[in-house]
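pasting histidine kinase for the record, 648 residues
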Amino acid sequence: MEMILTIRYLTILCLFTPFGATAQVAKPDTLQVFQLIDAAREKQQQGLTDAAEYDFQQAGELAKQLDFDRGLLMYAGHYCVFLYEQVRYEEATAMAHMQLEISKRLNDIQRMGYAYNNMSLQYQAQGKLQQAAESLMKALEISAAVQKPSIRDFSDRRKYYNNLSSLLLDMDDVGKGREYALKALEIAEQLKDTLAMGKSLVNIVVAEAMANNLTAAEQHGGQLLEIGQSLGDVQTELTAYINLSDIYRRQNRYSLALETYQKALALIEKAPPGNEVYILSGISSVYKDMARYAPANSYFNKARALAEEELTKPKLIELYLSGAEIKERIGAYHEALLLRKQYEQINDSLRNQEIHNTLQELEVKYRAAEKEKALAERDLKISEQHSKLEQLKKWIVLAVALVVILTILLIFRRLITQQKRKTAASEQANRLLEAQLKGEETERARTARELHDGVASILSAAKLHINAGNCENAASNTLIGELIETAVQEIRNISHNLAPETVLNDGFPQAVQEFCRRVNRPGTQLECYLVGELPKLDESTELILYRVIQEAVTNTMKHAEATESIVQLVGNGTRLSITIEDNGKGFDLQQLKQTGIGLQNLSSRMMLLRGSHEIRSAPGNGTSIYIEIDTAHTAQQTQVTPEMRYPG
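structre below
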């Protein structure tokens, strides 16, 4: 059977969290990890592979030094993509395993699916199809377990379907390969993702060509080319040219096939590595079919020089088989024999794996048959003992009565458990309400102190000047005016803190930036960073988060004795991450947990928003507060009115 080398599309998944360019603070921190990863990805797109790899390694080392798991997870995912594109499959496998380990440690189910998908691609590239299938099925199980899938969940599922299609095509299961490629295309169309449609079309084209349905393959190949050209995506356009060339060869349109391969060669410098070998081997196959074995042998030799470094094992067997035929035609029988042996060696290893899979299926069927046999024997024994059942009737009645009693007890126990859960939920609601009320009382006390210590003292000073009869003095009038202006400004600040209109009018990001600008003072450098596109928040959530930031920053300004402090807001789809750090004197976290009302308020608010938080601090080592919420949950769960007050 003639085997043709075609290019398919595999999708490798990293952590798709947008981190834009941000200002660098004085000391290395978690933000620098993301900056290094962004720089590495940009250089990767520019083809500066050495510089990109250096930045990736720097990001990984810094994340390890900071014990920053989220940064390590980001690094492992993107570096795995980089290594895969550089055809460094074993190193990429190690990164995928790191990605899986960290995802499990963070209990991040979605990114566990990404890691399993990436592991599957590396195993497939190395010809370990059994391990590839097992890993990919785990990714699909994770995707299928999502109760209410989001757009990202559907996008992930499409990629898993597409990769399963490619794996099945490598195993020559054309029917199922096309079936899963069509499922991937259907999801892409529902998402209206044009680039994803193109990636799914690739495997459809390959499946139709393998099934010798060349008319449909050519039609879909043309659609793929249009998508690549319209989006300016070089890899998609190049893939379309390579597969269309192979289709033209199968149709005996050799001139058109060679012309199309030349168009592909013109794009090779703009595309990632690993494409040239497909073009060279394809041109070799065209000349072989034209019975022009000298140029066929020349292009085969060029392709072979790249193949062992750039081709996966399933593709190597196709190249070796084609090369053996060419060498035989030109009379190089010894080389033909060696290529034939290499082909048989790899093909046998893959075929043995398929036999192993078949054996497993037969074993399952055998166990099922044995189980059915055991059930039949049991039924026979029951039939033989039927006459004895009458003698045991009384015992059966007693057993039924016992079962009824046990059932009643179980129902009663379940009702008690439900009542306990309701009581616990009520107590939790009371605790949340109590925390909110304490927050209001704390805010009122703080406002009273500010009015008494600030505004009242300033107005008292102005009153003294007025009572002293200094109003006729121009200088005194100026001083009295300045005092009154200062009092007005103090009242304005207190008003902003009580009900920040910018949160309700201008939006949460602007309110945080305005607050940081307002409280900034000489001696403490307070910087505010916005990274990525922040998700849309409801007003009550914005106000709660604003109060959290307000209280943390105010505590820093009053007590931390810090010279540098940052407030960082990071958007990732529906997730919002907030980091508040300073280089102040810090505190004993364990001691403060027992007496600190502020920490209790923070915990209450995070429970209210169904979010998570982490506080790191030690005497002399500054303080770091990390908060993360999923706005998809808070939009449904948060029912706090904007008028509520929280300590600031």
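Residues 15-27, 358-367, 637-648 have pLDDT under 50 and may be disordered.
The first strand starts at residue 525 and ends at 531.
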